[in-house]
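Design request, tokens follow.
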């Protein structure tokens, strides 16, 4: 019962007035109050299409405080009656109404009165045919709060202010999944315009809106919205995470059922927390990578130190071998000279020897000369091997110099082959040389490049020997082909073997430090890694590999003819 009803009941009876004039005036007041009460109870009707007001009843004009219907019809747009914060929701409601019949449920809405104040109404929407075209018909009834509920609006305002002050987004749904309320933080987190979804809006409308703006990607709309709606129907408290594509926020969503069948959904912005977690994880991964690199470097230094010690030992052995080897070479040459002198001294005695004795002497002399020549040849060959061992053991301390590349390749090949043969006397391989005489001299560090070539030749001999032992084919012939080629600005060395080859997965990791395909104890995994560093970083060349498993492997080194010397520090930066 409203204030006007109370006032109507409080008026004194007509019989209490002293004159007919006063009684007549009191009767007129009673009639006016009754008329206003009747108008307030009757629904007002307004019809509009595309924002243009087509019809307005007298009752609605009075409810809105206008003196005549014409004043309402003169408004430029129906939205003149709708407060700013409710316009988007009303447009959506009108659009849904024009799509066909809707549930006849009253919506609580607000409208501007003629004096710009706001009045709350209960609204029913119906699609109608007006002048041969569809239109929206609104029936509005003024809300009449009961005296017992006079404090409800105030309490509602206090509740709304309380949830608006919360730092998290809050959404309340009834048992039919319709919005009962939401705070401003909820609209901000989801990037919704304020007031877009008033109380009574089905939560599916928010999901349709999300789909239209592309939050869910290219997925069917109806099925997606239906599946998402079922996620609100929980029997206990659940947590989930969701990223809002429109603003990139990551929300921690907590859905909890209420005792009355409704639901409370809170939204906590965890974007900063996730960013910090990602940064910490990335920092941890970087630290672990650095630690692994340090451990690998430490292990590499240990292995290099062992290799350096082995190089020193090899150099020492080579030096020790060189002394007796020099004696062999020198005495072989001296013995040849003494034999020549002896033959000159015995020359006058030739006439005193018979034919048989003469033949025996000539045969012995020829044998001695042949043996001495072989001793000298093999001595020089051994001397070259020792020199190569000394150069190889010195490692990266050499100087850049113009070097006969073909001769360097041949020396490294001989050194490698004899080293393998020394370990396995049963091993033999066919060696093919295809040296381009145009290669000539190339500026490089011969000791370092010799180390690279020895590594490659040793690996090739290992591969062909492994295939020979594994296949058991008596017709298999281990073969190693070494080719050098020259161009104007570059030279290349191609080493091709018909060994076991490598699968692509192995080729991809071939130059990784400590990666080896050899059994434990047979390889350190540093040979090709160091070779790659020498060729690519130190000599600024290219190192290419091609292979077919169980068929062949081919390594190609391409070097520039001239290159500026690079220091150790520069190599580490590269």
């Amino acid at each position: 019962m409203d204030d006007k009803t109370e006032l109507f009941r409080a008026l004194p009876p007509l019989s209490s007035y002293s004159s007919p004039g006063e009684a007549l005036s009191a009767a007129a007041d009673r009639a006016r109050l009754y008329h206003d009460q009747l108008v307030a109870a009757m629904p007002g009707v307004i019809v509009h299409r595309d924002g243009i007001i087509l019809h307005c009843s007298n009752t609605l004009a009075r409810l809105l405080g206008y003196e005549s219907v014409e004043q309402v019809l003169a408004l430029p747009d129906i939205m003149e009656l709708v407060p700013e914060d409710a316009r988007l929701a009303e447009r959506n409601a009108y659009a849904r109404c024009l799509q066909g019949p809707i549930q006849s449920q009253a919506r609580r809405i607000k409208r501007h009165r003629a004096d710009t104040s706001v009045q709350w109404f209960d609204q029913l929407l119906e699609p109608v045919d007006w002048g041969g075209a569809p239109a929206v018909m609104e029936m509005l009834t003024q809300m009449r709060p009961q005296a017992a509920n006079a404090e409800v609006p105030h309490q509602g305002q206090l509740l709304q202010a309380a949830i608006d002050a919360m730092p998290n987004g809050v959404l309340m749904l009834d048992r039919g999944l319709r919005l009962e309320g939401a705070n401003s933080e909820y609209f901000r987190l989801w990037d919704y315009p304020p007031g877009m979804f008033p109380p009574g809006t089905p939560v599916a409308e928010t999901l349709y809106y999300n789909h239209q703006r592309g939050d869910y990607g290219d997925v069917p709309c109806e099925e997606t919205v239906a599946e998402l709606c079922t996620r609100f129907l929980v029997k206990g408290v659940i947590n989930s995470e969701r990223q809002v594509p429109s603003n990139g926020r990551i929300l921690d969503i907590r859905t909890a059922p209420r005792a009355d069948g409704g639901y409370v959904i809170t939204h906590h912005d965890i974007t900063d927390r996730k960013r910090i977690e990602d940064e910490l994880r990335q920092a941890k991964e970087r630290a672990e990578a650095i630690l692994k690199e340090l451990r690998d470097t430490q292990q590499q230094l240990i292995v290099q130190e062992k290799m350096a010690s082995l190089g020193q030992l090899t150099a020492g052995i080579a030096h020790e071998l060189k002394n007796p080897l020099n004696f062999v070479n020198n005495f072989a040459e001296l013995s040849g000279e003494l034999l020549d002198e002896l033959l000159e001294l015995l020359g006058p005695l030739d006439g005193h020897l018979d034919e048989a004795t003469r033949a025996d002497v000539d045969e012995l002399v020829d044998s001695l000369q042949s043996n001495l020549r072989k001793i000298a040849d093999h001595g020089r060959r051994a001397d070259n091997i020792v020199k190569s061992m000394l150069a190889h053991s010195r490692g990266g301390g050499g100087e850049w110099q113009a070097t006969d590349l073909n001769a360097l390749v041949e020396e490294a090949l001989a050194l490698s082959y004899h080293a393998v043969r020394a370990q396995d006397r049963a091993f033999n391989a066919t060696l093919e040389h295809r040296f381009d005489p145009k290669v000539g001299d190339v500026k490089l560090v011969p000791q370092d490049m010799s180390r690279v070539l020895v590594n490659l030749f040793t690996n090739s001999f290992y591969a062909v020997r492994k295939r020979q032992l594994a296949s058991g084919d008596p017709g298999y012939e281990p073969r190693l082909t070494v080719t050098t080629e020259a161009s104007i600005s570059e030279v290349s060395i191609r080493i091709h073997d018909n060994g076991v080859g490598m699968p692509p997965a192995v080729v991809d990791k071939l130059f990784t430090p400590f990666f080896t395909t050899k059994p434990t104890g047979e390889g350190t995994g540093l040979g090709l890694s160091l070779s790659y560093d020498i060729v690519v970083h130190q000599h600024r060349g290219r190192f290419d590999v091609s292979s077919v498993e169980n068929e062949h492997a081919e390594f190609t080194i391409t070097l520039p003819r001239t290159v500026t010397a690079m220091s150790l520090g520069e190599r580490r930066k590269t």
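Comment from the thread starter after seeing the answer: thanks! Residues 61 and 490 are 96 Å apart (CA to CA).
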